[in-house]
# Entry
Amino acid sequence: MSAPVDQAKNAEKFLADTVHEQRLDKLLWAMRMRRDAAARQVPEWEELRTLASEIKEHTLSNLSQYLIEFETKATANGVIVHWARDAHEHNQIVYNLLAEQGIDLLVKSKSMLTEECEMRPFLERRGIRVTETDLGERIQQLDNQPPGHIVGPAIHKTNKDVAVLFSKKYGSDPYNEDTAYLAGVMRENTRPDFLKAHAGMTGANFVVAETGAIVVATNEGNADLSANTPPLHICSVGIEKIIPTTESLAVFIRLLARSATGDTITQYTSMFRGPRKGAAMHVILVDNGRSARLGMKRFWHSLKCIRCAACMNTCPVYRRSGGLSYGSTYMGPIGIILMPTFEVHKYNELPFASTLNGSCSNVCPVKIDIHEQIYVWREVMEEHDQIQVVKKEAMRVADKVLSHPALYQIATTTLSAALEVLPHFAVYNRLNAWGKHRDVPEAARETFHEWYRNNRADANEGGKL
Amino acid sequence: MTSVQALSRNLILDLVRGNQPTAQPMPTIPHFPMNKSGDLVASFRESIARMAGVVVNDDVSDLDLFVRTKFPDAKVICSAIPEYAGTIKPASFKQWSEASTIDVCILRSPMGVAETGSILLSDIELQVNTIAFLAHDLVVLLDPKQIVANIHDACEHPHFKQRPYSVLMTGPSGSGDIGGIVVHPAQAAKTLTVILSPAPGGVQRSG
# Structure
């Protein structure tokens, strides 16, 4: 059993580095603002969100039928469809496809599913070199780190970080921090692999049952290059990505980029229905816990996610603690509700990395009740005895105090007075997580109850508070 | 399909069937009218400009002169349209990776989308799909009559149900992965220039 991820402790390290922390916060909040502006430009925005949610709920509640329809159509189009129960089976299928043809270089575009399956190390251990062709993903690969954000994997890094990294790995100018220059270094160094590789891999944003198409949205064109240039295209896709028709696809295309970055659409929205002449196309439908999640009454709605990251960009905890602090494939609010479905014990702390402010649910393009699910996950952790002793004891005391008005009034009055005289160590210690990075605010001279008694009690005709 | 694969398939489908929530209805997707003035060409211009694409304002009567003037250093000009020869045709590329030698690629799109500034391309127009991604610069002809209002209209194009490959391309390649500021190019074309030009022989409106 893996040790639980201590998100708060990991976040402390990120917070200690004010340059990165402040930059990430600013960047992501700007994305959130752009998302809001883009949404305001579409009068039917809320109607689209409702439609997207209903389409997903319809598809997930008829998933077996749509999976079979997709398989039938894709097969008729000349695609070879595989089924993988778990990560190992997925990785083995990919490896076999490559090994059968003696392929030792794979160019791939960004896929959170392959991260979830830990496919890259699996292939590399077997002698296959994998080149990530998405700029952010490549930066993370070169830095030996997982993605820190599902849309911008290296968004937490500064230009200086990338310049230094590229100079070490590619021999480029370590002092040139210009973004266009750095993107050019990536282009120069990736292009030879596109031309040399005999296999390319993509994920999928959507899978259309009606046409047997996989749909991939990118800005860099790297998915189109990965899929079109080599003679073998492998696509890995989670079974929840399916939607019924091309007509319904339109709803999601309109929501995806606007929710993610505030753009109206990605530079490339590409549909692959079958292989070109003389080439091969394989689609691997991956379960890896999704079918089990479908049966979780309180959590199956999380399968509606279209991986836009809007919930992450708006989350005050994510913006201030960075994606790597979650120690998980999926991070931020959506990560909090997905990861415990993989391993409850390892991710038992994640549901507490939230203020439950509800902003994540408000921006979600498919209306997942994210903050409510986070709250329920806290209850599940309690049910499964997965809450740390300090947190559990604090909640037990809070429960007792808050459910007894007299006790509450004594506590607030006493605490206000005590804060004025208590020594620093008595207020700021490991029991006071809130005070780790903040000063405890000065206590008011009187509690609200005291103020009300002194100022309004007469007007209330003896009314009891 | 191997026996292991068949086993996995059946196990996954059984699990899904067993765990599916109560069936929910499929909603009706309404027709959403165009948001804005209704001037499709003006909206298309505005939308593609936001994504760093360029629409030529003037009439281009001499395509060769236009290409030679705009890209004076171009040596390999790949034309995928019958009315212009260029220096090479897509059919010349035996391996699709060979398209990396292209400086400028000339194409015709069968549809533009006003809402997003996208142009549609498929394996029909491209012939060799990589020409639009390995070429440095793209010049795309588009009949203004083939601009549709929004993505709902665009998704009705038959290419999406018939072609092995199709793409809604919106501007040149770009990336915002460093510092959140989008720069061009990223991995694919460096520029995208659209020339509004009636299709030879006339066309019906798409979608």
